[in-house]
Description:
mainly alpha, 11 helices
Amino acid sequence: MGLSTMQDLPISNVSFTTFQLNGFSSLGEWRRFLFIPYFLMFLLCTTANSFLIFLIITKRALHSPMFVLIGLLAVVDLLMPMIFVPNMLLMFLFGWNQISLVGCLMQIFWIQFVGTLQSGLLLLMCLDRFFAICRPLSYHKHMQAANVLKFIIAPLIRNALLNIVVVSLAGRLNFCMKNEIDHCFCEHMGLVQLACGDTSVNNIAGLTTAFLIPTVDFMLIAVSYVIIFTSVIKSGKSSSKALNTCITHIIVIAVTLVLVLTAFLSYRTKNNVSPYNRIFISTMYVLFPSCFNPIIYGVRTKEIRLQFLKIFKRVKILAQ
């Protein structure tokens, strides 16, 4: 049934199955120029993460557990923008802004699921630092591949089940208000707001998922760092090495948490956040970590920086 025919029917008989993504639509013709900054960020993300993955795979010196985890984070950071950025760029450039309900639900699931993988890996990296600094003698025992898999599988099942519940509940709603999503990609609350009827269960499911995944992960990360720094201070050793090792993770975690919470609360609380700012923040909490994680780790991690400089010198010699 066409959209024009649907608009002639009573609202109670309508449930839209096709939606329009109208993020930044009020910019009119100027919206297409957003293609440039978002394309550059996408290019930076794919290039930087691909190079970091290549570096960790090919250099034997980077095959320790810590760098393997950084490599896995780079894989996740590479996948995240692939889910929605190409469609968003086509929307900016050609106005291709339609998406089916199934496509929208799939996009919500993969963005949330891959996003939770990021927080899970950051937690695992924090545990790696905990064992390296506080339990150095048993580090290799705890960070063996079999034990690391145990740390990964449980959060992976938790993340998958909770996100399946959230997306399944959203898929059961009737969308009779309108079929325009004021966003550049499908976001859970952006879609739920278009539903007619009671959406309290969806709100509770979203809040529960937000508490049980990123909030719990970040609380565990915070507790781990408190233990790490307390252990260093009590030992009487210089804390400079521990601080230098952990500060990179703290930067990444703090930036990610601020962006995620700002975007999350902008939908659920009364605030003065404009639609433009909300959309921008939502795109940034997905894109910013993916773009700058490899740069932060590449600059602040001595071993990665040295391997990069070696490759750079070889390329420079070959180019002469």
